[in-house]
């Protein structure tokens, strides 16, 4: 598969205008009445085009941020068109070359992939009907195979897809979806193919924001306050303006920036600005969880069944506990960055972002322009994890480019990256539950503070259930983070269930299976992980340091077993081995999916063991990887991943469920090793009780 998606090239509208061939387009919802086929060629909802050479181009309103989306989409289109994947080009992350933004999560194959497959199937059916008409036969007598349309009874009579498309502008507006290939007949879907952009990433050819070089480009640095919620009182930029290499000092309200010919000169000039700030009052972080509880307002009644209070009162056994998780930074290796340039009456922004259309809207609003006059091109991204949704850097670069009339690059320093972006919300989760004399779970009552209800589904059977989510006043800015509240909610649920099993003298795996009678998929995943590990019935703590946990996120489910080693003197925790069993619908690229799961497990070890944002008096203290340590290769355990395909469902989100399960699996393993139950993340250095 050719990878030309990181270069500007033709816009989508230019491609559709110039190329004869098939264009497949559709929108969420019905098409507007009276819309003509010719008019729709310029509409912003084309997902796929087939050129005269028989090659296909896929357009998708999302980006590649390391999840292998590009090759998976190529496989899905190639499957329906009976093409080789190297005949499919995939265009991602360009607001001029992709469909209009729809409400799709970044890289979600269950939604974006379904759209691409549907478009490819529509194109296949359109060409098959054209061939049938030429041969004066019914569609059922025509086959599409190996990139050709042929008569089933006489395969020597055939056309290539390009021959059928040649010289025509054929538009299919999809209303009734064409049938997809049955899973059993798939030949490309289900194969482990290498990422098309893999070579460029390991050889240095991938084009990140920092690699952009435009004629007359300059560099900018933005003035930051000393702490959160500080207001600029007065400033003096005269010393900055006369620094060598400084092109402009921009002052627009509280937005102050220095533009210079070189990034080092911009940094030096920024430091010479004299600014006075008024700092607000900040509650001590030691009172964080009290603050969350005291400011809580009911946001959502997530689940309610039976009579929870009556069941708790009647229960033979009661179990109550609170679980806490810290604020966490996204900490991508590549910091936020953008380059903005004026092109006539338009602005073009190259950005390291997950949501180019959101950046386009933000830039257009900041510059008081129509969104169509803003083009955002997502470059290769060195990590995102939900943190590159915000458009601040793109807006800053665009504002400055308009002021100086030259392309401007704005790239955050590591200190800015860790201190001035949104964080994963801290969370407090209260759990009360009751069990009958025989250990059967009678009631589950869960209150979630600050992190939202994602991942809070109980998973296990009980007749009396209540889950509520509360919005709280957060002392730190917070936003999307990979899996977001799923990690905190999975941590609380799985550690609490482990606690119940231990108190009742039951094996934690058997206790879960006992309450999974209505969920065959989760029970299958639990059994697969246990079998792979060679699980033997046990009652924790055994001193072995083995823990079990489950999670569900984005349509995927996972069961994980963690083996840990706790250094008795220092309390340091080392995760030695992780077994994972995963099920998430149709598997498009098994190797790519396994990479996602393994990467998610390793990433999840950070917030589990060490990662936590420290802040005092509004000042973020964790401003480097020395003070905010993320997992490295030295922290990576032995990983054993089993993938259970379920081709009856579309492909689901790949890695988030695995990330959500690792924290409770490790916490339960630490209890098994030490006999002490830990209910707060990160675990840090633990001590046996």
Task: Describe the structure in your own words.
The protein is of the alpha+beta class and 689 residues long. It has 3 domains: 12-189, Aldehyde oxidase/xanthine dehydrogenase, molybdopterin binding domain (Aldehyde Oxidoreductase, domain 4), CATH 3.30.365.10; 210-278 and 336-411, Aldehyde oxidase/xanthine dehydrogenase, molybdopterin binding domain (Aldehyde Oxidoreductase, domain 4, 2-Layer Sandwich), CATH 3.30.365.10; 295-327 and 423-681, 2-Layer Sandwich (Aldehyde Oxidoreductase, domain 4), CATH 3.30.365.10. A 7-stranded mixed β-sheet has the order 11-12-9-19-16-17-18, with helices on both faces. A 6-stranded mixed β-sheet has the order 14-22-21-20-15-29, with helices on both faces. Helix 3 packs parallel to helix 4 (109-135), helix 11 packs across helix 12 and helix 17 packs across helix 18. The protein is flat. The N and C termini lie far apart (57 Å). Residues 1-7 and 27-44 have low confidence and may be disordered.
């Amino acid at each position: 598969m050719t990878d030309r998606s990181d270069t500007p090239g033709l816009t989508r509208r230019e491609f559709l205008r110039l190329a004869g061939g098939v264009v497949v387009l559709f929108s969420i919802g019905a098409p507007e009445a009276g819309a003509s086929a010719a008019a729709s060629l310029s509409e912003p909802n084309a997902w796929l085009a087939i050129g005269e050479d028989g090659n296909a181009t896929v357009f998708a309103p999302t980006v590649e941020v390391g999840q292998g989306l590009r090759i998976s989409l190529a496989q899905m289109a190639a499957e329906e068109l009976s093409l080789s994947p190297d005949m499919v080009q995939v265009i991602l992350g360009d607001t001029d070359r992709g469909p209009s933004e729809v409400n799709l999560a970044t890289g979600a194959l269950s939604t974006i992939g379904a759209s691409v497959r549907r478009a490819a199937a529509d194109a296949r059916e359109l060409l098959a009907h054209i061939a049938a008409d030429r041969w004066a036969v019914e569609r059922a007598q025509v086959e599409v195979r190996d990139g050709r349309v042929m008569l089933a009874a006489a395969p020597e009579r055939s056309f290539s897809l390009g021959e059928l498309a040649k010289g025509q502008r054929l538009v299919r507006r999809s209303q009734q979806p064409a049938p997809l290939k049955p899973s059993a007949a798939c030949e490309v879907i289900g194969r482990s193919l290498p990422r098309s952009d893999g070579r460029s990433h390991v050889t240095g050819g991938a084009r990140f924001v920092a690699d952009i070089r435009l004629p007359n480009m300059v560099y900018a640095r933005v003035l930051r306050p000393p702490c959160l919620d500080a207001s600029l009182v007065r400033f003096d930029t005269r010393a900055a303006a006369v620094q060598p290499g400084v092109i402009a000092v921009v002052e627009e309200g509280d937005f102050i920036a220095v533009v210079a010919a070189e990034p080092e000169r911009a940094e030096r000039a920024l430091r010479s600005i004299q600014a006075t700030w008024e700092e607000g009052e900040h509650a001590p972080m030691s009172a964080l969880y009290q603050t969350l509880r005291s400011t809580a307002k009911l946001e959502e009644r997530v689940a309610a069944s039976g009579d929870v209070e009556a069941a708790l009162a009647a229960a033979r056994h009661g179990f109550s506990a609170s679980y806490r998780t810290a604020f966490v930074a996204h900490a991508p290796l590549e910091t936020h960055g953008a380059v903005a340039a004026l092109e006539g009456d338009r602005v073009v922004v190259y950005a390291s972002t997950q949501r180019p259309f959101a950046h386009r809207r933000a830039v257009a609003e900041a510059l008081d322009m129509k969104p169509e006059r803003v083009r955002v091109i997502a470059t290769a991204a060195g990590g995102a994890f939900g943190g590159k949704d915000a458009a601040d850097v793109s807006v800053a670069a665009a504002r400055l480019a308009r002021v100086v009339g030259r392309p401007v690059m704005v790239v955050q320093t590591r200190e800015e990256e860790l201190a001035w972006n949104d964080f994963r919300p801290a969370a407090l989760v209260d759990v009360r539950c009751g069990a009958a004399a025989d250990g059967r779970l009678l009631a589950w009552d869960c209150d979630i503070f600050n992190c939202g209800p994602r991942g809070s589904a109980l998973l296990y059977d009980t007749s009396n259930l209540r889950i509520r989510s509360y919005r709280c006043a957060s002392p730190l800015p917070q936003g999307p983070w990979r899996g977001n509240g799923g990690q905190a909610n999975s941590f609380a649920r799985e550690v609490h269930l482990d606690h119940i099993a231990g108190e009742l003298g039951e094996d934690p795996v058997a206790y879960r299976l006992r309450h999974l009678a209505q969920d065959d998929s989760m029970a299958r995943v639990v059994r697969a992980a246990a079998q792979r590990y060679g699980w033997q019935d046990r009652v924790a703590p055994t001193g072995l340091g083995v823990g079990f946990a489950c999670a569900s996120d984005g349509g995927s489910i996972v069961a994980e077993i963690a083996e840990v080693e706790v250094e008795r003197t220092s309390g340091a925790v080392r995760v030695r081995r992780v077994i994972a069993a995963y099920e998430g619908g149709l598997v498009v690229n098994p190797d790519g999916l396994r990479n996602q799961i393994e990467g998610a497990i390793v990433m999840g070890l950070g917030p589990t063991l060490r990662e936590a944002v420290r802040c005092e008096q509004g000042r973020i203290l964790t401003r480097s990887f020395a003070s905010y340590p993320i997992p490295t290769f030295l922290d990576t355990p032995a990983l054993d991943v089993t993938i259970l395909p379920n081709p009856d469902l579309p492909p689901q989100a790949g890695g988030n469920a695995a990330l959500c399960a690792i924290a409770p699996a490790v916490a339960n393993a630490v209890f098994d090793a030490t006999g002490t139950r830990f209910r707060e993340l990160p675990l840090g250095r633990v001590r046996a009780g």
